[in-house]
Amino acid sequence: MTKPSILVAEDEGALVTLLRYNLEREGYRVLEARDGEEALLVAAEEQPDLVILDWMLPQLSGIEVCRRLRGRQETRNVPIVMLTARGEESDRIRGLDTGADDYLTKPFSMTELLARLRAVLRRIRPSLAEDVVQVGDIALDRAAHRVRRAGQDVHLGPTEYRLLEHLIQHPGRVFSREQLLDAVWGSDVYVEARTVDVHVGRLRKALNVDGTEDPIRTVRSAGYSLDESSTVKAAS
Ligand code: CA
Questions:
Q1: Which structural domains are found in the chain, ordered by start?
Q2: Cα pseudo-dihedral 146, 150, 156, 160, rounded to 10
Q3: What is the pairing mode between strands 152-154 and 146-149?
Q4: What's the gap in Å between 25 CA and the centre of ligand 1?
Q5: Reduced to 3 states, what is the DSSP secondary structure of residue 79?
Q6: Residues 6+ apart with CB under 8 A from 160
Q7: What distance in Å separates the CA atoms of residue 214 and residue 226, rounded to the nearest whole number?
Q8: Distance, CA 27 to ligand 1 centroid (Å)?
Q9: What pLDDT is attached to residue 236?
Q10: pTM summary value
């Protein structure tokens, strides 16, 4: 199962270590950035499911990072939880339209943070919190580990299942082969980019039965996406 990824943009090493430990224990994949510039780079490259953003960051302040994330097409809708030091800027954050979805004042308890993250993810990306994700006539049930198309069971190998699970959480979004490799195989595994094509081919074959439309769009030299519309024509 692909885990929701969280970018931790924070320059205090001890806090990053603590966050990583707790977030990974909760099943999240953790990305790190130690300053504002790096946060923007990692957010654009990795497209995290949520960003934990410290208000006081070197290079670019958290508030500026937040503003720029909101200004860019690929990160416009990413949920952002801001961290502030007590008394520092929390009143301003409360008063400003920062574009953040929530904020926490340091020091905070991990239990509180985890509860807030779950709430934000549930509100903004219900597909990350619910067992059954549905796009068009395709339904993926994470609890039962089952996929159905137009009510018919679809049998998938473990890799094809993880591919579909990733694509279905972001309908319409184009993923490069490299992004799919990272998300489905993991960034520490060496797999050739062509392997992605092979497994997308198998996933297509399993999904497209009895003349149903191909829901997977091939974007030449860019990658693949799963489209919301079930009437999309096969592009390859
Ligand atoms: Ca800081």
A1: 5-128 (3.40.50.2300), 132-235 (1.10.10.10)
A2: -100
A3: antiparallel
A4: 23
A5: coil
A6: 199, 202, 203, 206
A7: 9
A8: 25
A9: 38
A10: 0.59
The answer to whether 154 and 207 have CB atoms below 8 angstroms apart is yes
Averaged pLDDT of the chain: 86
CA of 38 to the centre of ligand 1 (A): 14
> How far does the centroid of ligand 1 lie from the alpha carbon of residue 186, in Å?
29
| Separation of alpha carbons 161 and 155, rounded Å | 9
Tokens representing 25? 């224990």
Q: Quickly state the pLDDT bin for 18 (edges 50, 70, 90).
A: very high
**What are the backbone dihedrals phi and psi of residue 42, each rounded to the nearest 5 degrees, phi first?**
-65, -40
pLDDT one-digit tens code per residue, 167-183: 998 888 899 998 898 88
- Note the pLDDT tens digit of each residue in 94-116: 545 678 888 888 888 999 999 99
Ligand 1 geometric centre to CA of 57 (Å): 5
108 CA distance to ligand 1 middle (Å): 14
